Amino acid sequence: MKKTTAASTTGHCILAGAGPGDLGLVTLRVREALGEADVVVFDYLCNQEMLKWARREAEIIYAGKKAGQHTLKQEEINALIVKKTKAGKLVLRLKGGDPFLFGRGGEEAEALADAGLSFEIVPGVTSAIAAPAYAGIPVTHREHAAQLTIFTGHEDPTKPESTLDYAALAKAPGTKVMLMGVERIGPIMDQLQQHGVPATMPIALVRWGTTGRQQVLSGMVSDIAEKVASTGFAAPAVAVIGTVAALREKLAWFDKRPLWGKRIVVTRTRQQAGALSSKLRALGADVYELPTIRIEPPTQEREFVSAVVHAHQYNWIVFTSPNGVQAFFDKFYEVRGDARELGPAKIAAIGPATAAKVREYRFAVDLQPKEFVAEAVVAAFEETESIENLTVLIARAETARDVLPDALTKLGAIVDVVPVYRTVPETDDVSGGIARFTAEGADLITFTSSSTAENFKALGLPWPEEMKTASIGPITSQTMRELGMKVDVEAGQYDIPGLVAAIRAHFA
Hints:
This protein has 18 helices and 22 strands. It is α/β, with parallel strands linked by helices.
């Protein structure tokens, strides 16, 4: 599909399901559309972290609706997406789960059709199936249920009476899944019992299914309402009614992982956070991202370009971070276009992540110290070859320690330090991390560089009691202590896998 822009004569609207909450269940089509859209309109049940995939220039509009709180009425949402599409925009309308399963996507599609506008439908993974699966409940099973009935417990409040046929629902064999009915769980369960559903029928409620905040409340049709009231269990939740609900006791998996229930904050850049977040989520943590920095071109870009143009004249190029590698080679291919033009320069890299980034650009790494700090590079050079009178280009961040260039200069090298990127404070809270941190706090916050710690401190956010900290290595730890932060966890191996391992050991 050809991307439309504001200058186009006709727009296009994508009505898409954002999935049940787990970012891993977002479809490839939705991720692609986020990277193209001019306007993104999203709902309350959408995981806001997917908005990090949107273009920085995109207009982001929250149109959330939850019980008793409507940012926009449905008619206003319809008018909004019609207006934006008419203006020639590529509009992405994100709806939790699937847009056509009790999501009022049909009404929005009708509004676009009535206006004669171009649109498409992107199905999404529905919570009706995904939430039970993450709770260890198969909605069908050869020995329990050969039929699945999905209904809503939240009907149009303007209707004079319910249109749910409780007699038919009660008689339907197999599993029954109810969406959006926690607030009315008592009357609904009463109706089902009155029409023949056994009082002892198992039921499970799954709240915030597929996310690190998932909660499951199990019971029977006869007592689940009392349990909801006594525990304060609240929406959003999916109810699974049927004998399959009892299988959770045997099949529960999502909430049995080593970091389950731990709220962990990731402060890396929006583009880089995913690598750490995904590893922690795989261990069961409730991870949310609060980016404190973003990567920008260096202040002296002319000096940067000059260094790239003349890179073939150096004996060694030293990279200290994956960000430096990406910035350097992106510019290299922009101005050179041929990998052979790097010439005979050898490459040194600090840390496996930096080395891996170099290899992504199809270059070999000639020197990689065992430890992931600048001092180790110096030691590695001393062990391998003399660098006296050799020219060395250090491609690094605009603000960095001078340990490496000073030490290489003392060894006799002719060193040029060229900033290839800079870190600046992240000012946008697109994914809602700051709001969630302020409201809920966290069990642990991670820092992967000195700049993430410095910029988090600059935000001036309240520090939750009992919150622990985790540092990727001694340099970051030193900065944290200088900022008045206690270091509770420090990676023994100074990279993302090492940080994850240290966090897991800490909570174990």
